Amino acid sequence: MKLIRKINSQFLFVSLGMLIFVGVSLAIVLHRVIDDQIEDKMEYTYQNIKKKLNNNSPVNTLTPFVEIHIIPPAPDTLFLSESTVFNTIEEENEPFKQLNATTTIHHNTYRIVIRESKLETDDFFESIISIVLLAILLMIVALYFTNRKISQSVLSVFYHNLDKVKAFSLQKGQALNLSTSDITEFNELNTVLVSLTNKVISDYHTLKQFSEDAAHELQTPLAIIRTKLEALLNASDIPSSHLEKIQSVYATTHRLTRLNKDLLLLSKIENNQFEPKEVISLVPFIEKKVEEWHEMIALHQITLSTRLETPLTVKMHPNLAEILVSNVLSNAIRHNLPQGQITISINGNTLSISNSGEHPIENPDAIFNRFHKENPSQKSIGLGLAIVKKISETHQIQVNYSFEERRHIFTFQFPL
Amino acid sequence: MKLLLIEDEPDLLLEIKNYLIVERFLCETATNYADADQKLAIYHYDIAVVDLTLPGGSGLKLIETLKKQHKNTGVIIISAKNSLADKLKGLDLGADDYLTKPFHLAELNSRIKAILRRRKYEGQNEIIHHEILISLDSGSVKVYNQLVTLTKKEHELLLFFIGNKNRLLTKESIVEHLWGDHIDMADNFDFIYTHINNLRKKLMKAGGNDYLKTIYGMGYKFTDI
C-alpha cells in the first residue's frame, strides 16, 4: 500500500468516526432541545386553556391538536405520552407527542389532550444524516485530489530519488546524487543514503584493491617456491622417493599459481583494467584458438564444425576476447564425450558454442559461479566460466547456458 | 654473454642466476635501483633482466635511462604485477619482452635466447644441435641435412628443448610455453605427450638420435647424449 493511501485511509477512518460521533451527538442534543420545546409549548397551551376555563372564556378546540372533554369527576392527573394520529390528507399515521391532563375547574372535570406533531423532528434527523453523508463524500473527493496533488508535488522528489537509488550500481562506482526537497524526513533519508552508499563504494574499492594487491603480493613468493622446486627437480643427487614428493609440491604450486593468476584476472576485469576497448571481429580469435587446439581436439577424437560466415564485431579489449573464446572452447573440449562434437556458430549477433553431453548438468544456475565444479573430483580451478561471466557482464553480453538434444549450449548475445 | 639480473628478492635472484650460469651466461646481479643504475652505466651487458618494483626506484626508469644511452642491451621485464599498462609502457620504452611472476626458469632462459638470436645472430641465424639444424630465417628443420616437416607447435617445442638442454622441463612449463598463461588445460597433459611423441618420431625417422628422455611423472629432458 502506498504511503499516501495508508495515511489517508487512517485519516478517513478517524474522520468518519468523528463525523458519525458529531452527527449522533448533534441528533441527541437537538432531539432533547426540540422535545423540551414541544413540552414547553404544550404546557403553555395547557396553562392557557386552564386560564380560559377559569375565566369561563370560550376555548377553541382543534382536533387532533387540542381536545377538551367533560368527564365524570376524577382526580387531577398530568402526564406525557406518545401517540399516532391518522393524517387524513396524507393518509398515513403520524407520530405525535401528547399531554394528557385531567383537571377540575368550577366543579367540572375536564380531560384535556394537547398534541404536537413530531414529524418535523424526524425531518430534522434526516437532514442531519444527509449533511454528514455529504460531508463524508466531499472529504473523500477532496482527499482523492489532494493525494494526486501531493504525489505529484511533494512525493515526486521522493520517487525521483527512489529511481536513482534503484539504478545505483557498485560496479559503476558513481556516488549517489539525490535531489533535495523541502521535506525534512526526505532530506534526512537522502543524507543517510548518500553516506551509506559512499561507505559501501569505498569499502568495495578497498576490498577490490585488497584482493588485487593480495594476488600481486603472492606472485613473488610463488615465484621463489617454484624456482627452488625446479632447481630441486633438476638436482642430480635427490633420491627418487623425495623427487616424487617434490614433484607433488611442484604440481600443487602450479595449481596455486594458476588459481592466483585467475583471481588476479577476475579482479582486473572488475577494476576495468582492460582498456582501451577496440572494435574487433571475433572470428579470427575463434580460428586462432581452434588452430591452437586442433591437436587436443583430435586427441579426444572430437569432431569440430564451425559456421562463422557472418562477421561478428564486438567492442572489447583483444586480450579479453581471446580469454573469452579460449575459456569457453577449452570448457567444450574438456567436458565433451569421447568422439563427441563441438559446434561453433555465429548467427547475427549471437555466438553459440555447443558440445556433446550425456546429461544436462545438475546445477545450471551455479555454472558461472566462482569455484563451482560440476564434478568435484576434477582438477580444474573452477574459475574459467566465472571469468567468462565477468567479461560478459562488463561488456553487456547476454550469456546463457542450456541443454538441448544431448548438447551443452553456451550462447553469447552481443550488444548491437 | 653478459647478463645483469636486477631483482630485489635474493632467493629468486639466486635461483635465476644458478639456472643461467649453467647456460654459460656471465651473470651479474643488482638488488636495488641505485646499484643497478650504476652497473648499467659503467658496464655493457647483452641482456638485462629487470624487475619493475625495486627498492629505490622503478625498473621502468632504469629501462628509460638504459635506452637513452643507446646501448645495444636486450631487456626482459619480470614483474609480479601482471599489469597491461606496465607491459605496454615497458615495451614502448624499448624492452624486448615481459614475463609475469611466477615464471618457469626454462621460460626465462628461452626468452633470453630468443632475444639474443634476434639481436646478434643476424646473418647466421641457425641453431645446431649435433645432427639437427634449425634455420631461424626460413623456420626449416634439417636432420643430417634432410628436411623434416614439423608443425608449428612441434617447432616451438624443439626450440624450447634445445634452448634448455639437459634440463628437466616439467609438463607445466611446456604447457605454458606452448599455450600461454590462460589455458585452463593444466590438468590434462595427454596432449603434450602426443606432441612430444610426434616430434621424437619425426626426428628419429630422419635418422636422428633420440635425445628426448621422458622423466616419468615429471616431464622431459633433451639430452646431449
Describe this structure in words.
The complex is a heterodimer of chains A (416) and B (225). Chain A is an alpha+beta fold. In chain A, 54% of the residues lie in helices and 20% in strands. Chain A contains 9 helices and 11 strands. Chain A has a 5-stranded mixed sheet. Chain A has a 4-stranded antiparallel sheet with strand order 1-4-3-2, covered by helices on one side. In chain A, strands 5-7 form a two-stranded antiparallel sheet. The model of chain A has no long low-confidence stretch (mean pLDDT 86). Chain B is an alpha/beta fold. Chain B folds into 2 domains: 2-119, Rossmann fold (3-Layer(aba) Sandwich); 125-222, Orthogonal Bundle (Arc Repressor Mutant, subunit A), CATH 1.10.10. In chain B, the strands form 4 sheets. Chain B has a 5-stranded parallel sheet with strand order 2-1-3-6-7, sandwiched between helices. In chain B, strand 9 and strand 10 (141-143) form a beta hairpin. In chain B, helix 2 packs parallel to helix 3. Chain B starts with a strand and ends with a strand. The chains are: A alpha+beta (416), B alpha/beta (225). The A-B interface holds A 216-217, 219-220, 222-228, 230-231, 233-234, 243-244, 247, 250-251, 254-255, 257-258, 261, 264-265, 268, 273-274, 292, 295-296, 299, 319, 322-323, 326-327, 330-331, 333-334, 378-381, 384 and B 9, 11-12, 15-16, 18-19, 80-85, 100-106, 151, 153, 167-168, 170, 172-173, 179, 181-188, 190-191, 194-195, 217-218.
